[in-house]
Amino acid sequence: MNRKNNQRFQNTETKIQQALLEMLEYKDFSKITVQEICKIANINRSTFYAHYLDVYDLIEKIECNIHQKLLSLYVGTGATKTNFLNPKYLTIFLSFIYQYRNFYRVCLQTRKKFPIEQGFEPLWNNIIKPYCQKIGFKSEDEMMYYFVYFQAGFTMMLKRWVDNDFNESPEELSEIFLKCISNGFNTYISL
């Protein structure tokens, strides 16, 4: 029997992931141990290691699961390649970040960039490239520079939001972000 499709195996993975997410609410990620996760999940260490290599492998798997949940939020919403950057869809995204704030707090503290590597190709092909083409970018190199700039700016805005303990609502941050993008494009287009 395939263990990954086994309901018991999946339930154990869920318990382990929930234990880590629970611990992130009160403990710094770098101080969390496998032993503590096992205690909260009520499993032994060998069970943990049957699922994950270490705590870092666990956080990467959680990241993949959360990323899939995020993408599923947009199915059936009318989000298209060229209308993604509007208040409605950006607020959905920011509300999701807020819902999983403990996880994203860890991601933004331990990394220099926002965790989108898993979804880079779909993000590039479905959102960034069509949007850049719509506003007049011709070369893929130029689009990639824009994307790198966009990603760095967006990541730092999110980091500030996290560091300030989410002082602004997702709607307020969406408005601020869209103003920044709009002003950035207007500056670029007027050059």
Automatic annotation (TrEMBL):
Name under which the protein is recorded: HTH tetR-type domain-containing protein
Species this protein is from: Clostridium uliginosum
Molecular function terms from GO: DNA binding
Gene3D superfamilies in alphabetical order: Tetracycline Repressor, domain 2
HTH tetR-type domain segment(s): 10-70
Keywords from the named record: DNA-binding
DNA-binding region: 33-52
PANTHER family xrefs: ACREF/ENVCD OPERON REPRESSOR-RELATED (PTHR43479), TETR-FAMILY TRANSCRIPTIONAL REGULATOR (PTHR43479:SF7)
